[in-house]
Design brief:
CATH superfamily of chain B: P-loop containing nucleotide triphosphate hydrolases
CATH architecture of chain B: 3-Layer(aba) Sandwich
Number of domains of chain B: 1
Oligomer: heterodimer
Distance between the termini of chain B: 56 Å
Number of strands of chain A: 0
Largest sheet of chain B: 6 strands, mixed
Structural class of chain A: mainly alpha
Helix content of chain B: 25-40%
Largest interface: A-B, 22 and 20 residues
CATH topology of chain A: Methane Monooxygenase Hydroxylase, Chain G, domain 1
Order of helices and strands of chain A: HHHHHHH
Strand content of chain B: 15-25%
Number of helices of chain A: 7
CATH class of chain A: Mainly Alpha
Distance between the termini of chain A: 45 Å
Structural class of chain B: alpha/beta
CATH architecture of chain A: Up-down Bundle
Strand order of the largest sheet of chain B: 6-7-8-3-9-10
Strand content of chain A: under 5%
Radius of gyration of chain B: 20 Å
Helix content of chain A: over 70%
Number of domains of chain A: 1
Protein backbone atom coordinates (compact mmCIF):
# COMPACT_ATOMS: atom_id res chain seq x y z
CA UNK A 1 0.00 0.00 0.00
CA UNK A 2 1.35 3.40 -0.99
CA UNK A 3 2.08 6.01 1.58
CA UNK A 4 -0.16 8.86 2.59
CA UNK A 5 0.62 12.38 1.50
CA UNK A 6 0.65 13.15 5.23
CA UNK A 7 3.30 10.78 6.62
CA UNK A 8 2.16 11.09 10.24
CA UNK A 9 -1.09 9.42 9.15
CA UNK A 10 0.94 6.34 8.18
CA UNK A 11 2.75 6.43 11.51
CA UNK A 12 -0.54 6.55 13.41
CA UNK A 13 -1.92 3.58 11.49
CA UNK A 14 1.31 1.65 12.01
CA UNK A 15 1.20 2.38 15.71
CA UNK A 16 -2.34 0.97 15.93
CA UNK A 17 -1.28 -2.18 14.09
CA UNK A 18 1.71 -2.52 16.41
CA UNK A 19 -0.60 -2.37 19.43
CA UNK A 20 -2.82 -5.09 17.96
CA UNK A 21 0.20 -7.33 17.53
CA UNK A 22 1.41 -6.57 21.07
CA UNK A 23 -2.01 -7.39 22.47
CA UNK A 24 -2.09 -10.59 20.45
CA UNK A 25 1.34 -11.70 21.66
CA UNK A 26 0.39 -11.04 25.25
CA UNK A 27 -3.01 -12.75 24.92
CA UNK A 28 -1.42 -15.82 23.36
CA UNK A 29 1.10 -16.11 26.21
CA UNK A 30 -1.67 -15.70 28.77
CA UNK A 31 -3.63 -18.56 27.18
CA UNK A 32 -0.60 -20.88 27.38
CA UNK A 33 0.41 -19.81 30.89
CA UNK A 34 -3.06 -20.04 32.35
CA UNK A 35 -3.56 -23.62 31.19
CA UNK A 36 -0.07 -24.52 32.32
CA UNK A 37 -0.67 -22.94 35.73
CA UNK A 38 -3.93 -24.82 36.11
CA UNK A 39 -2.51 -28.20 35.14
CA UNK A 40 0.63 -27.87 37.28
CA UNK A 41 -1.02 -26.05 40.20
CA UNK A 42 1.44 -23.19 39.73
CA UNK A 43 0.04 -20.30 41.77
CA UNK A 44 2.80 -17.86 40.89
CA UNK A 45 2.26 -18.34 37.18
CA UNK A 46 -1.48 -17.94 37.74
CA UNK A 47 -0.88 -14.68 39.60
CA UNK A 48 1.20 -13.42 36.70
CA UNK A 49 -1.57 -14.17 34.21
CA UNK A 50 -4.04 -12.33 36.41
CA UNK A 51 -1.81 -9.26 36.58
CA UNK A 52 -1.11 -9.41 32.84
CA UNK A 53 -4.82 -9.10 32.17
CA UNK A 54 -4.64 -5.58 33.58
CA UNK A 55 -1.82 -4.82 31.12
CA UNK A 56 -3.89 -6.16 28.27
CA UNK A 57 -6.82 -3.95 29.31
CA UNK A 58 -4.50 -0.95 29.39
CA UNK A 59 -3.30 -1.76 25.87
CA UNK A 60 -6.88 -1.88 24.70
CA UNK A 61 -7.71 1.49 26.24
CA UNK A 62 -4.62 2.98 24.61
CA UNK A 63 -5.62 1.52 21.26
CA UNK A 64 -9.21 2.77 21.58
CA UNK A 65 -7.98 6.27 22.31
CA UNK A 66 -5.60 6.22 19.34
CA UNK A 67 -8.28 4.96 16.95
CA UNK A 68 -10.81 7.54 18.12
CA UNK A 69 -8.23 10.30 17.72
CA UNK A 70 -7.30 9.02 14.28
CA UNK A 71 -10.93 8.97 13.15
CA UNK A 72 -11.51 12.46 14.53
CA UNK A 73 -8.34 13.90 13.12
CA UNK A 74 -8.00 12.17 9.76
CA UNK A 75 -11.51 11.05 8.80
CA UNK A 76 -10.09 7.86 7.28
CA UNK A 77 -11.67 6.42 4.15
CA UNK A 78 -11.79 3.03 2.41
CA UNK A 79 -9.05 0.66 3.65
CA UNK A 80 -7.93 3.16 6.30
CA UNK A 81 -11.45 3.37 7.69
CA UNK A 82 -11.73 -0.40 7.66
CA UNK A 83 -8.38 -0.69 9.43
CA UNK A 84 -9.45 1.77 12.13
CA UNK A 85 -12.81 0.14 12.82
CA UNK A 86 -11.33 -3.34 12.46
CA UNK A 87 -8.64 -2.52 15.04
CA UNK A 88 -11.28 -1.50 17.58
CA UNK A 89 -13.11 -4.76 17.12
CA UNK A 90 -10.03 -6.96 17.07
CA UNK A 91 -8.75 -5.31 20.24
CA UNK A 92 -12.08 -6.04 21.94
CA UNK A 93 -11.79 -9.72 21.01
CA UNK A 94 -8.19 -9.88 22.23
CA UNK A 95 -9.23 -8.28 25.49
CA UNK A 96 -11.91 -10.94 25.91
CA UNK A 97 -9.33 -13.64 25.25
CA UNK A 98 -7.32 -12.17 28.12
CA UNK A 99 -10.38 -12.27 30.38
CA UNK A 100 -10.98 -15.92 29.59
CA UNK A 101 -7.33 -16.77 30.29
CA UNK A 102 -7.55 -14.90 33.58
CA UNK A 103 -10.65 -16.88 34.45
CA UNK A 104 -8.70 -20.12 33.91
CA UNK A 105 -5.82 -18.82 36.05
CA UNK A 106 -8.21 -18.02 38.89
CA UNK A 107 -9.21 -21.69 39.09
CA UNK A 108 -5.71 -22.77 40.08
CA UNK A 109 -6.44 -22.66 43.80
CA UNK A 110 -9.75 -24.43 43.39
CA UNK A 111 -8.32 -27.38 41.51
CA UNK A 112 -6.07 -28.21 44.43
CA UNK A 113 -2.42 -28.06 45.42
CA UNK A 114 -1.31 -31.19 43.61
CA UNK A 115 -0.79 -31.19 39.87
CA UNK A 116 -3.52 -32.77 37.79
CA UNK A 117 -2.82 -36.35 36.70
CA UNK A 118 -1.29 -36.80 33.28
CA UNK A 119 -4.23 -38.60 31.74
CA UNK A 120 -6.48 -35.71 32.65
CA UNK A 121 -4.12 -33.00 31.54
CA UNK A 122 -2.91 -34.36 28.19
CA UNK A 123 -6.00 -33.54 26.15
CA UNK A 124 -6.36 -30.07 27.65
CA UNK A 125 -2.71 -29.29 27.07
CA UNK A 126 -3.09 -30.34 23.43
CA UNK A 127 -6.20 -28.20 23.03
CA UNK A 128 -4.45 -25.24 24.61
CA UNK A 129 -1.59 -25.54 22.10
CA UNK A 130 -4.01 -25.59 19.16
CA UNK A 131 -5.77 -22.49 20.51
CA UNK A 132 -2.47 -20.66 21.10
CA UNK A 133 -1.43 -21.43 17.54
CA UNK A 134 -4.73 -20.07 16.28
CA UNK A 135 -4.17 -16.80 18.19
CA UNK A 136 -0.68 -16.31 16.79
CA UNK A 137 -1.72 -17.44 13.27
CA UNK A 138 -4.59 -14.98 13.05
CA UNK A 139 -2.25 -12.09 13.86
CA UNK A 140 0.41 -13.31 11.45
CA UNK A 141 -2.13 -13.56 8.65
CA UNK A 142 -3.55 -10.15 9.55
CA UNK A 143 -0.18 -8.42 9.40
CA UNK A 144 0.66 -10.28 6.17
CA UNK A 145 -2.77 -9.29 4.69
CA UNK A 146 -3.28 -12.95 3.81
CA UNK A 147 -7.03 -13.14 3.13
CA UNK A 148 -7.01 -16.79 2.07
CA UNK A 149 -5.30 -17.95 5.24
CA UNK A 150 -7.71 -15.88 7.33
CA UNK A 151 -10.64 -17.58 5.69
CA UNK A 152 -9.07 -20.97 6.33
CA UNK A 153 -8.61 -20.14 10.02
CA UNK A 154 -12.32 -19.69 10.39
CA UNK A 155 -12.82 -23.22 9.14
CA UNK A 156 -10.10 -24.47 11.51
CA UNK A 157 -12.18 -23.37 14.49
CA UNK A 158 -14.23 -26.49 13.93
CA UNK A 159 -11.22 -28.56 15.00
CA UNK A 160 -11.15 -26.72 18.30
CA UNK A 161 -14.86 -27.40 18.78
CA UNK A 162 -14.29 -31.10 18.12
CA UNK A 163 -11.53 -31.18 20.73
CA UNK A 164 -13.83 -29.53 23.23
CA UNK A 165 -16.52 -32.13 22.63
CA UNK A 166 -13.98 -34.92 23.06
CA UNK A 167 -12.68 -33.44 26.33
CA UNK A 168 -16.20 -33.01 27.60
CA UNK A 169 -16.86 -36.72 27.08
CA UNK A 170 -13.52 -37.72 28.51
CA UNK A 171 -14.03 -35.70 31.69
CA UNK A 172 -17.55 -37.05 32.05
CA UNK A 173 -16.16 -40.58 31.99
CA UNK A 174 -13.58 -39.78 34.69
CA UNK A 175 -16.24 -38.27 36.90
CA UNK A 176 -18.45 -41.31 36.58
CA UNK A 177 -15.55 -43.61 37.39
CA UNK A 178 -14.38 -41.71 40.46
CA UNK A 179 -16.63 -39.09 42.10
CA UNK A 180 -13.64 -37.71 44.08
CA UNK A 181 -12.32 -36.02 40.90
CA UNK A 182 -15.59 -34.21 40.20
CA UNK A 183 -14.37 -30.86 41.55
CA UNK A 184 -11.14 -30.97 39.59
CA UNK A 185 -12.86 -32.18 36.44
CA UNK A 186 -15.49 -29.47 36.63
CA UNK A 187 -12.80 -26.80 36.72
CA UNK A 188 -10.98 -28.46 33.86
CA UNK A 189 -14.25 -28.51 31.97
CA UNK A 190 -14.56 -24.75 32.48
CA UNK A 191 -10.99 -24.41 31.28
CA UNK A 192 -11.81 -26.37 28.12
CA UNK A 193 -14.95 -24.31 27.58
CA UNK A 194 -12.91 -21.11 27.92
CA UNK A 195 -10.40 -22.41 25.38
CA UNK A 196 -13.27 -23.19 23.05
CA UNK A 197 -14.59 -19.65 23.45
CA UNK A 198 -11.14 -18.23 22.82
CA UNK A 199 -11.31 -20.13 19.54
CA UNK A 200 -14.56 -18.30 18.76
CA UNK A 201 -12.86 -14.97 19.42
CA UNK A 202 -10.07 -15.99 17.06
CA UNK A 203 -12.77 -16.66 14.46
CA UNK A 204 -14.18 -13.16 15.05
CA UNK A 205 -10.73 -11.67 14.67
CA UNK A 206 -10.19 -13.64 11.45
CA UNK A 207 -13.50 -12.35 10.05
CA UNK A 208 -12.60 -8.77 10.97
CA UNK A 209 -9.11 -9.07 9.59
CA UNK A 210 -10.56 -10.50 6.38
CA UNK A 211 -12.89 -7.52 6.05
CA UNK A 212 -10.06 -5.06 6.77
CA UNK A 213 -7.90 -6.76 4.14
CA UNK A 214 -10.44 -7.27 1.36
CA UNK A 215 -13.36 -4.93 2.07
CA UNK A 216 -15.65 -7.94 1.78
CA UNK A 217 -17.61 -9.70 4.50
CA UNK A 218 -17.18 -13.43 4.71
CA UNK A 219 -20.49 -15.19 4.10
CA UNK A 220 -22.68 -15.75 7.16
CA UNK A 221 -21.24 -18.23 9.58
CA UNK A 222 -21.37 -21.97 9.09
CA UNK A 223 -24.06 -23.66 11.19
CA UNK A 224 -22.52 -24.43 14.53
CA UNK A 225 -23.24 -27.58 16.47
CA UNK A 226 -22.49 -28.08 20.10
CA UNK A 227 -22.48 -31.82 20.53
CA UNK A 228 -22.24 -31.56 24.27
CA UNK A 229 -25.86 -30.42 24.32
CA UNK A 230 -28.82 -32.82 24.03
CA UNK A 231 -30.33 -32.51 20.55
CA UNK A 232 -33.75 -31.43 21.80
CA UNK A 233 -32.46 -28.26 23.45
CA UNK A 234 -30.64 -27.07 20.34
CA UNK A 235 -32.95 -24.70 18.48
CA UNK B 1 -40.70 -20.32 14.37
CA UNK B 2 -39.56 -19.82 10.78
CA UNK B 3 -35.88 -19.09 10.59
CA UNK B 4 -34.35 -17.35 7.59
CA UNK B 5 -31.16 -18.57 5.98
CA UNK B 6 -28.13 -16.28 6.00
CA UNK B 7 -28.70 -15.02 2.46
CA UNK B 8 -32.41 -14.44 3.10
CA UNK B 9 -31.54 -12.34 6.10
CA UNK B 10 -29.06 -10.31 4.08
CA UNK B 11 -31.57 -9.76 1.27
CA UNK B 12 -34.23 -8.64 3.72
CA UNK B 13 -31.83 -6.19 5.35
CA UNK B 14 -30.72 -4.89 1.95
CA UNK B 15 -34.33 -4.27 0.91
CA UNK B 16 -34.94 -2.25 4.03
CA UNK B 17 -31.86 -0.13 3.58
CA UNK B 18 -32.91 0.48 -0.03
CA UNK B 19 -30.68 -0.25 -3.01
CA UNK B 20 -30.51 2.66 -5.49
CA UNK B 21 -29.74 0.54 -8.55
CA UNK B 22 -33.33 0.58 -9.74
CA UNK B 23 -34.08 4.31 -9.63
CA UNK B 24 -34.93 5.69 -13.09
CA UNK B 25 -32.35 7.61 -15.10
CA UNK B 26 -32.70 11.37 -15.34
CA UNK B 27 -29.64 12.27 -17.37
CA UNK B 28 -27.24 10.13 -19.31
CA UNK B 29 -23.83 10.97 -20.77
CA UNK B 30 -22.29 8.74 -23.41
CA UNK B 31 -18.79 9.01 -24.89
CA UNK B 32 -18.54 12.62 -23.77
CA UNK B 33 -15.38 14.33 -25.02
CA UNK B 34 -14.68 17.96 -24.23
CA UNK B 35 -11.94 20.10 -25.74
CA UNK B 36 -10.77 23.53 -24.69
CA UNK B 37 -9.09 24.63 -27.90
CA UNK B 38 -6.58 21.90 -28.77
CA UNK B 39 -6.52 20.54 -25.23
CA UNK B 40 -8.80 17.60 -24.46
CA UNK B 41 -10.35 17.88 -20.98
CA UNK B 42 -12.71 14.86 -20.98
CA UNK B 43 -12.14 11.48 -22.59
CA UNK B 44 -15.17 9.39 -23.51
CA UNK B 45 -17.08 9.74 -20.25
CA UNK B 46 -20.11 7.47 -19.77
CA UNK B 47 -22.10 8.51 -16.73
CA UNK B 48 -25.71 8.17 -15.63
CA UNK B 49 -27.54 10.51 -13.28
CA UNK B 50 -30.44 8.91 -11.46
CA UNK B 51 -33.67 10.64 -10.59
CA UNK B 52 -34.08 11.99 -7.05
CA UNK B 53 -30.57 10.95 -6.21
CA UNK B 54 -27.58 13.04 -5.32
CA UNK B 55 -24.65 12.17 -7.56
CA UNK B 56 -21.28 13.42 -6.32
CA UNK B 57 -18.41 14.04 -8.72
CA UNK B 58 -15.02 13.80 -7.03
CA UNK B 59 -11.39 13.87 -8.12
CA UNK B 60 -8.28 16.02 -7.89
CA UNK B 61 -8.14 19.52 -9.39
CA UNK B 62 -8.15 19.49 -13.17
CA UNK B 63 -9.67 16.00 -13.39
CA UNK B 64 -12.63 17.18 -15.47
CA UNK B 65 -15.40 16.86 -12.88
CA UNK B 66 -16.50 20.51 -13.19
CA UNK B 67 -16.19 20.28 -16.96
CA UNK B 68 -18.55 17.33 -16.97
CA UNK B 69 -20.97 19.13 -14.65
CA UNK B 70 -20.99 22.14 -16.95
CA UNK B 71 -21.85 19.90 -19.91
CA UNK B 72 -25.10 18.91 -18.23
CA UNK B 73 -26.71 22.33 -18.81
CA UNK B 74 -24.45 23.44 -21.66
CA UNK B 75 -22.61 25.98 -19.55
CA UNK B 76 -19.55 25.12 -21.63
CA UNK B 77 -21.31 26.83 -24.57
CA UNK B 78 -20.38 30.10 -22.90
CA UNK B 79 -16.68 29.27 -23.25
CA UNK B 80 -15.64 30.17 -26.82
CA UNK B 81 -12.89 27.61 -27.18
CA UNK B 82 -14.92 24.74 -25.70
CA UNK B 83 -16.20 21.94 -27.89
CA UNK B 84 -18.35 19.06 -26.66
CA UNK B 85 -18.72 15.69 -28.40
CA UNK B 86 -20.84 12.68 -27.51
CA UNK B 87 -24.41 12.35 -26.27
CA UNK B 88 -25.97 13.87 -23.21
CA UNK B 89 -29.65 13.30 -22.69
CA UNK B 90 -32.24 14.67 -20.28
CA UNK B 91 -35.23 12.32 -19.99
CA UNK B 92 -33.99 10.64 -23.15
CA UNK B 93 -33.80 13.89 -25.14
CA UNK B 94 -30.42 15.00 -26.54
CA UNK B 95 -29.66 18.35 -24.94
CA UNK B 96 -27.11 19.22 -27.64
CA UNK B 97 -29.77 18.89 -30.34
CA UNK B 98 -29.90 22.19 -32.33
CA UNK B 99 -33.66 22.36 -31.70
CA UNK B 100 -33.09 22.64 -27.96
CA UNK B 101 -33.64 26.10 -26.46
CA UNK B 102 -30.62 26.57 -24.21
CA UNK B 103 -32.37 29.11 -22.00
CA UNK B 104 -35.20 26.68 -21.39
CA UNK B 105 -32.68 23.86 -20.79
CA UNK B 106 -30.96 25.90 -18.10
CA UNK B 107 -34.30 26.49 -16.43
CA UNK B 108 -34.77 22.71 -16.30
CA UNK B 109 -31.19 22.11 -15.25
CA UNK B 110 -30.31 24.86 -12.78
CA UNK B 111 -26.93 25.64 -11.30
CA UNK B 112 -25.40 26.81 -8.03
CA UNK B 113 -21.80 27.97 -8.06
CA UNK B 114 -18.84 27.78 -5.73
CA UNK B 115 -18.97 31.39 -4.66
CA UNK B 116 -22.40 32.73 -3.74
CA UNK B 117 -23.27 35.17 -6.52
CA UNK B 118 -26.56 36.91 -5.75
CA UNK B 119 -27.64 39.62 -8.18
CA UNK B 120 -27.09 43.15 -6.87
CA UNK B 121 -30.81 43.35 -6.24
CA UNK B 122 -33.19 42.75 -3.35
CA UNK B 123 -33.63 39.31 -1.85
CA UNK B 124 -37.12 39.24 -3.38
CA UNK B 125 -35.90 40.20 -6.85
CA UNK B 126 -33.12 37.63 -6.76
CA UNK B 127 -35.73 34.90 -6.48
CA UNK B 128 -38.42 36.51 -8.69
CA UNK B 129 -36.01 37.25 -11.53
CA UNK B 130 -35.97 33.78 -13.09
CA UNK B 131 -39.73 33.20 -13.00
CA UNK B 132 -40.18 36.69 -14.52
CA UNK B 133 -37.88 36.19 -17.53
CA UNK B 134 -39.30 32.71 -18.09
CA UNK B 135 -42.85 34.06 -17.86
CA UNK B 136 -43.80 31.64 -15.11
CA UNK B 137 -46.00 34.22 -13.33
CA UNK B 138 -47.84 37.46 -14.07
CA UNK B 139 -49.62 38.71 -10.97
CA UNK B 140 -47.79 39.99 -7.93
CA UNK B 141 -49.54 37.44 -5.74
CA UNK B 142 -48.13 34.65 -7.90
CA UNK B 143 -44.62 36.05 -7.62
CA UNK B 144 -45.06 36.44 -3.87
CA UNK B 145 -46.06 32.77 -3.72
CA UNK B 146 -43.08 31.61 -5.75
CA UNK B 147 -40.66 33.72 -3.71
CA UNK B 148 -41.97 32.46 -0.40
CA UNK B 149 -42.07 28.82 -1.49
CA UNK B 150 -38.57 28.93 -2.97
CA UNK B 151 -37.09 30.63 0.09
CA UNK B 152 -38.82 28.12 2.31
CA UNK B 153 -37.50 25.19 0.32
CA UNK B 154 -34.04 26.71 0.52
CA UNK B 155 -34.41 26.97 4.30
CA UNK B 156 -33.99 30.75 4.27
CA UNK B 157 -37.54 32.06 4.62
CA UNK B 158 -37.65 32.45 8.39
CA UNK B 159 -34.38 34.39 8.34
CA UNK B 160 -35.31 36.87 5.59
CA UNK B 161 -39.10 37.16 5.54
CA UNK B 162 -39.01 40.55 7.26
CA UNK B 163 -36.38 42.03 4.98
CA UNK B 164 -37.24 40.76 1.53
CA UNK B 165 -36.51 44.14 -0.04
CA UNK B 166 -33.03 44.50 1.38
CA UNK B 167 -30.13 43.71 -0.97
CA UNK B 168 -29.23 40.04 -1.31
CA UNK B 169 -25.58 40.95 -1.09
CA UNK B 170 -26.13 42.06 2.52
CA UNK B 171 -26.69 38.48 3.69
CA UNK B 172 -23.99 36.28 5.21
CA UNK B 173 -22.10 33.89 2.92
CA UNK B 174 -24.16 30.87 3.94
CA UNK B 175 -27.41 32.82 3.54
CA UNK B 176 -26.28 34.10 0.15
CA UNK B 177 -25.64 30.53 -0.98
CA UNK B 178 -29.09 29.47 0.18
CA UNK B 179 -30.47 32.52 -1.66
CA UNK B 180 -28.74 31.25 -4.81
CA UNK B 181 -30.33 27.83 -4.23
CA UNK B 182 -33.73 29.53 -3.80
CA UNK B 183 -33.09 31.43 -7.05
CA UNK B 184 -32.25 28.16 -8.80
CA UNK B 185 -35.36 26.36 -7.58
CA UNK B 186 -37.70 29.33 -8.27
CA UNK B 187 -37.92 28.30 -11.93
CA UNK B 188 -38.93 24.73 -10.94
CA UNK B 189 -35.91 22.93 -12.35
CA UNK B 190 -35.73 19.16 -12.58
CA UNK B 191 -32.01 18.91 -12.03
CA UNK B 192 -29.79 21.13 -9.87
CA UNK B 193 -26.05 21.23 -10.56
CA UNK B 194 -23.85 22.36 -7.70
CA UNK B 195 -20.21 23.24 -8.21
CA UNK B 196 -18.49 23.09 -4.81
CA UNK B 197 -21.40 24.91 -3.18
CA UNK B 198 -19.88 24.88 0.30
CA UNK B 199 -16.23 25.59 -0.32
CA UNK B 200 -16.61 29.26 0.63
CA UNK B 201 -18.73 28.55 3.72
CA UNK B 202 -18.03 27.87 7.38
CA UNK B 203 -18.89 24.45 8.89
CA UNK B 204 -22.28 25.53 10.25
CA UNK B 205 -23.37 27.08 6.95
CA UNK B 206 -22.01 23.97 5.22
CA UNK B 207 -24.07 21.71 7.47
CA UNK B 208 -27.22 23.68 6.64
CA UNK B 209 -26.59 23.39 2.91
CA UNK B 210 -25.95 19.66 3.26
CA UNK B 211 -29.18 19.26 5.20
CA UNK B 212 -30.91 21.22 2.47
CA UNK B 213 -29.43 19.04 -0.29
CA UNK B 214 -30.90 16.00 1.39
CA UNK B 215 -34.34 17.62 1.55
CA UNK B 216 -34.17 18.91 -2.04
CA UNK B 217 -33.51 15.38 -3.26
CA UNK B 218 -37.18 14.55 -2.63
CA UNK B 219 -38.19 16.91 -5.47
CA UNK B 220 -35.08 17.33 -7.58
CA UNK B 221 -32.18 15.41 -9.04
CA UNK B 222 -28.85 16.78 -7.83
CA UNK B 223 -25.34 16.57 -9.19
CA UNK B 224 -22.66 18.02 -6.93
CA UNK B 225 -18.96 18.59 -7.46
CA UNK B 226 -17.05 18.61 -4.20
CA UNK B 227 -13.48 18.51 -2.96
CA UNK B 228 -14.59 17.28 0.42
CA UNK B 229 -14.59 13.51 0.53
CA UNK B 230 -16.63 13.57 3.71
CA UNK B 231 -19.21 15.82 2.09
CA UNK B 232 -19.55 13.47 -0.86
CA UNK B 233 -19.92 10.57 1.57
CA UNK B 234 -22.53 12.46 3.59
CA UNK B 235 -24.80 13.92 0.92
CA UNK B 236 -24.68 11.62 -2.09
CA UNK B 237 -26.16 8.27 -2.99
CA UNK B 238 -23.82 7.72 -5.92
CA UNK B 239 -20.26 8.89 -6.43
CA UNK B 240 -18.23 9.22 -9.61
CA UNK B 241 -14.45 9.52 -9.45
CA UNK B 242 -12.63 11.45 -12.20
CA UNK B 243 -8.93 11.54 -12.92
CA UNK B 244 -7.09 13.28 -15.78
CA UNK B 245 -10.29 13.66 -17.80
CA UNK B 246 -11.39 10.05 -17.41
CA UNK B 247 -14.18 8.57 -15.37
CA UNK B 248 -12.28 6.14 -13.15
CA UNK B 249 -15.17 4.55 -11.30
CA UNK B 250 -18.81 5.17 -10.47
CA UNK B 251 -20.95 3.40 -7.90
CA UNK B 252 -23.01 3.53 -4.71
CA UNK B 253 -21.42 6.09 -2.40
CA UNK B 254 -21.34 3.64 0.49
CA UNK B 255 -19.18 1.26 -1.50
CA UNK B 256 -16.99 3.99 -2.99
CA UNK B 257 -15.93 5.15 0.44
CA UNK B 258 -15.51 1.79 2.13
CA UNK B 259 -14.28 -0.48 -0.62
CA UNK B 260 -13.69 1.15 -4.03
CA UNK B 261 -12.63 -1.11 -6.90
CA UNK B 262 -10.01 1.11 -8.50
CA UNK B 263 -6.60 1.86 -7.09
CA UNK B 264 -6.76 5.50 -8.23
CA UNK B 265 -9.99 5.97 -6.29
CA UNK B 266 -8.50 4.33 -3.20
CA UNK B 267 -5.40 6.46 -3.38
CA UNK B 268 -7.37 9.65 -3.84
CA UNK B 269 -9.96 9.16 -1.11
CA UNK B 270 -7.44 7.89 1.42
CA UNK B 271 -5.05 10.78 0.82
CA UNK B 272 -2.37 8.84 -1.02
CA UNK B 273 -2.75 10.77 -4.25
CA UNK B 274 0.24 12.42 -5.89
Amino acid sequence: MGEHTVSSFDQELDEIDRLIVQMGTLAQRMVGDSTKALLSADERLAARVISEDATLDAFQRDLDARVITLIGKRQPMAQDLRAAVGALRMAADLERIGDLAKNVAKRVNAVGRTPVSETLSNSIEAMSRVVQDAVSDVLDHYTAHNAEALQALRVDDEKIDIRYTAIFRELLTYMMEDPRVITTCTHLLFCAKNLERIGDHVTNIAENAYYVTTGLQLPAKRPKRDETMPAASVS
Amino acid sequence: MNLMTGSQVENAVHQQTGGVENTPLKMRGRKVNVFYGPKQALFGVDLDVRQNQVTALIGPSGCGKSTFLRCLNRMNDTVDSARVEGDITLDGENIYDPKIDVVELRARVGMVFQKPNPFPKSIYENVAYGPRIHGLARRKADFDGIVEKSLQRAGLWSEVKDRLHEPGTGLSGGQQQRLCIARAIAVSPEVILMDEPCSALDPIATARIEELIDELRQNYTIVIVTHSMQQAARVSQRTAMFHLGNLVEEGPTEKMFTNPDEKRTRDYITGRYG
